[in-house]
Specification:
Helix content: 40-55%
Order of helices and strands: HHHHEEEEHHEH
Number of domains: 1
Number of helices: 7
CATH superfamily: SCP2 sterol-binding domain
Shape: globular
Length: 145
Amino acid sequence: MSSHSKNLVMVWFLRAPGPGTPDPITQEDIMGETFSEFVGLVARLNEIRSARNLMEAFPRTIQFDLKGERGPFHVTIDGGKMTIKEGVPEKADILVVGDSGEFAKVVRGKLDVTHPIARGHITIEKGKISEMTLLNRIIVATERR
């Protein structure tokens, strides 16, 4: 076995999980389920013309304060583009509070935003529910591509 092969085996051995070794840390462990889902979604949405057209008509900053997230974060839609940042924005047009797992399903496109709102898993503390349905239309634009 060459010395290069021995080094590769040693690296694998040092990094391979064994009994009692915790699973590798995922992005969700660091940021939270909904934030992680949004991070992946934002890049796709910014490339899809139909989503950009919807975002052009919906300039908003949406703050999320969800149980299960590392902390609050916000999504800003401006100029037909979406960005996501950790923390509280200077001014939020909409404030969403509730369960991260439930809203992550909305971001994945598996659940319409009205369902967790109707069940009380998500509340809109500032803004209107109708604005959230517009966000839902933007999110599902990735499915129509």
